[in-house]
Specification:
Length: 71
Amino acid sequence: MKLSQLAIGEVGIVKEFTDLEMSVKLMEMGCLPGEEVRVSRIAPLGDPIAISVSGYQLSLRKFEASTIILQ
């Protein structure tokens, strides 16, 4: 399952990334494999989404969230 497929309040564990270049940026922001992520908000038109990861809020575009594969 991809992070972009989660609904508000759902939780997932980061497993891997599909885009190498994007994965470097995401890991620098705390989205490390094994880290728990929770979807906290979704914009009215569905893009971007806000997630809680490593104790802070992170806003991602749907495309960016779709590169994160969850367990």
